[in-house]
## 1
Amino acid sequence: MNRKFKILLARPRGFCAGVVRAIDIVNKAIDRYGTPVYVRHEIVHNKRVVETLRSRGAVFVKELDKIPDGALTVFSAHGVSEAIENDAKDRGLPVIDATCPLVSKVHAEGRNHATHGHEVIMIGHSGHPEVEGTRGRVPGGVLVVSSTEDVSRLEIKDPEKLAFVTQTTLSVDDTRDIIQTLRTRFPAIQGPDLKDICYATQNRQQSVRDLCRSIDLLLVVGAQNSSNSNRLNEIGMEMNIESHLIDDALSMQASWLDGVQTIGITAGASAPEELIDELLQAIAGLGETTVEEISDIVENIQFKLPKNLTDPVVSK
């Protein structure tokens, strides 16, 4: 008996403006300056993106000491600490910074609070590249909290001189609860409510919530170490929908589709659309499919590239 699946595609899904900018930076750096181009850490959290750029001549390294003297260096979209930036300057490495402008905005907010004498709390996941980059951008560092329980354990120097910022890729719901807990415990705390969570993260989360009202199964295409992809998967589970975060079509198990009629598909902000296309083909190989895109959310934000990739090349 031929199975039939109705597939609902979330919109928006996949690449956000910050990811598009970061990938463009590496590609244009290769086009303009040749290879190799060294990238500190994964430019974004997606294996397919990294492999595609590697095939063009990008070399991904964990730390700057793996980069030869004089080699063109790109900082990833997640941002880096001031110490790493200074290390690159001291070594004379030509650098192109692919930090997402929205992450840079969080850095600026944190520095501004610290300049005014505030102790800074960051809502985020300790160890995540964005959090570590922000930690190293704010004078005096930041205190990291990832749950309301963490807030209760905070030891603060002066509750009257306190501020917070947030990682851009968090769950809107979890962050709202943490902010409320912070404001309850520290009424004088300054912060941006939910404004630091980037527009793309919020849009993708809202799209998944809309999707989960009409599906039996949610498939989220994204890397296992992608914070925003994990949040999308968690939203599905919170809404009592069977949900799976998968790297690609090969990661899908056919048994997940047993007894399923309507499948929801979305992708994290670092996942290319080709992975969605491959997943649709894989499902079509298991039964007859109809595909419908849902949501009225339209994204048209674009971020400018660095000047050293857009200014005319000066002939020597």
## 2
Amino acid sequence: MVSRPFVMALAPLLACSFGLAQSETSLVDLTRQTAPAAHELTTEARGDILMARKMYREAIDAFQSDPQKSAVIENKIGIAYHQLQQLDQARKSYERAMKLKPDYAEAINNLGTVYYAKKSYRRATSQYLKALRLNPNNPASIYSNLGTAYFARKKYEEATTAYAKALSLDPDVFERRSSYGTLLEDRNVAERAKFHYYLAKMYAKAGRNELALQNLRKALEEGFKERKKLNEDPEFDAMRSMPEFQELLTVEPRVL
């Protein structure tokens, strides 16, 4: 049995660690709503705590014992399986969540991340686009996922458009570590050098020069070969007089 003060003290930590989407009930509200007179946690809240502790197998057991079997619970079970890299089980859970709630954008997005992990990039793209159509708030993380799927398909123009939209919705979307909450984000891009170069261009266009320089360094360190673009792409016009940018131009290319 856990006291309510203890649960409330844990709430900020769990909200940060588990990363619940804004469309879901916050953990603070959850503790207020679900802590009865006996001060007992619900099975869902217990599962949330286990997820925050990265005890994914135990979290699955807790969620599966929940009598409601709601779309939210099935989605959380899917996330736990996903963390364990049991992608087929995760896919089944996301599909059950979508069956219970056909317009559940979070589960649809998460199913897209399973397809992405399986290198089925076209299917992943389709799921992300569907999630965006169903979610009026259009979370930056889904646009980020969409851009990554386009990038993996070498559709760089579409990827740049999606990434730019994600950046406009959340200026820190690419700097924040994925916390695997209600939404899953997948940024495992094979062409890391080119990925960081495109991010550098977007940050430069937005006037965020420090982040642009950081991503240019990463691109060069990872073997970006089209170095002449640094002197050609208009996004870097305002940065070319910077000593840090000039220094990057003299860095020896990495031998792969």
## 3
Amino acid sequence: MVARVLIVDDSSFFRRRVNEILESDARIEVVGMAKNGLEAVEQAEKLKPDVITMDIEMPVMDGITAVRKIMQKSPIPILMFSSLTTDGAKATLDALDAGAVDFLPKKFDDISNDREEAKRLLCARVRLIAARGLGITPVATTVVKQKSSVPASQPRKKNHQLVAIGTSTGGPVALQEVLTKLPKNFPVPIILVQHMPASFTPSFAQRLDGLCQIDVREAVDGDVLKPGLALLAPGGKQMEIVKSGRDFSVKISEPLLGQNYKPSVDVAFDSVARFYPGTALGIVLTGMGADGREGAKKMKQGGSELWSQDEASCVVFGMPAALEEAGLSDYVLPLSTIGETLTRCV
């Protein structure tokens, strides 16, 4: 399959640069370019590309408005290019709410310090989004698959003492879908690990806190775990659970050399396995790669339960697939049921 792409940006230099990178991959074809949101809406309907790359700040019509109109008229997967600023974070989250499926930093140096690696990652993200399309069907009646020889069934109520959720691509929308279903008196603490730049996590936590009945905030070193509180790992850092007196709290630290994900689901899950053996619930949502699999293995070895999001409702079926393929998922659930199931089972 060749991914057909429409590039949208008001900078002719940036359009040419993205075009050169994408056209260097034989599996990608740039079918058009637009310099503002209005042209993007018109060309999206005319060219029907597989993927659109979209800037946010543009004349005539901004990227967020263009995303809304495209998703209303002729829905197409949209990858946003964002500046890593507080304003850029808020605008990008607005674009995801409007229907965009993912985002990347506009400065390629922020994707990777290695220019060639940054180019490869951009092409890989475009191909993956094109292949996935918008075939996301989070339907509540989807059958829940239990990863054993036992017939499929719903998760049962257990004495979970902590919920740990890890996610990446598609995660901002998925986390919002799950957490807004939880009641204010949710009985256990929650930790959240979302692959996201450091400038994005404060805005994302604030947004979730405004939408949810539970409290959500970006974690700071020493925050104590409390029922009804979800702590979001800060971007660019690692978050682990530690024991502090009679309480459990989070430790926020700089990533170690060689840790690719910052924050890392594996790092967080590994600490959950140490301090909550057999009493935690780990959930892996949509995301590229396999972060979370190794930490989940340790949780599983300690007797904790693991859920993963089903393929049909994932933006990218990477991280949940890694759990399923390793035989770690106790239950595979559609996104639309996870929040309600949490409320019932925890």
## 4
Amino acid sequence: MVATSRENAVAGRSPVTGLPAAPRDRAIGALTGLALGDALGMPTQCLPREVVRERYGILDDFHPGPDDNEVSRGVPAGHVTDDTDQAVILGELFVAGHGRVDEHRFAGELLNWERRMRAAGSRDLLGPSTVRALALAADGVPADRTGRWGDTDGAAMRIAPVGVGVPGDPPDRLVDAVEQASRLTHNTGIAIAGASAVAAAVSSGIDGAPLAVSLRRAVAAARIGGRRGHYTPGADVADRIAWALDLVAGRPRDEAIDVVYRLVGAGVATQEAVPAACAFAALHPDDLWAATRHAASLGGDCDTIAAMTGAVVGAHAGLGSVPSRILARLARANPGLDLDRLAGDLLALRRSI
């Protein structure tokens, strides 16, 4: 009997071949899935859900940044944004530091990236938590204090490489790595909880676990991460993820988009964006292409939500569901984005830890 795609996903097999997906395929799937979701969501980010619905329906291709989008106006179709660029910066520093991020170098790389973006005319720059933290770092504030108020989703959006590079068992070790990589800009329980959830789901996928199991591990990691860093007021990220998963369970996928937008939220708050990404992953456990298209059709901070969704689903399903023409266009639009090499470096680090 031929297994269905959902059965393959439950068994940790490729939806195309039905054979076990290799860790390298899943690692490349995680990083490429992040970039895919980011590029799909580039034109729809910051737009209201109703505008996205009327203009695009459910995205089925890359689109250029529209004239009425203040952030992505004029950006060519298929280009990634800060989500992918910062994840690559973090991933390369994580490899160079053998599992630790040099915070001084990280601050410099982020500032250099923003200078290049400004010079290129980009309006998609550093987020509010990162801007505040880097200004404090420039004033000589110690690294354990610069991210004191960073509670937005910037830590979670760029954490996927840590999930590729660190095993999820024991979970405290993974959360330790997430906390260290996040504290410069997002040293709060809320941000670390969200980043821990994404990293745990990705790491679990690399190990071959079914996505449903990985999402349970994401909730558990968020509970650990929520006890790290500084306190800021806000809803519990772990509970919000569990609630979002229950909210969309059994719903038609197109209906679930509106439910996530209205109830879970599509803003830059960690406790909105990370639960939304987990919900979309749960709805499309074996189909990276469908997962990223639906998440990118959300509106709001949907480039980040789709990037996190893509990282999580890609770590489980690989790239088999993504049309080859789409992958080719993504590569052409982002020359020099060597995600295969980074995935290999992160896997080598994972084996050495």
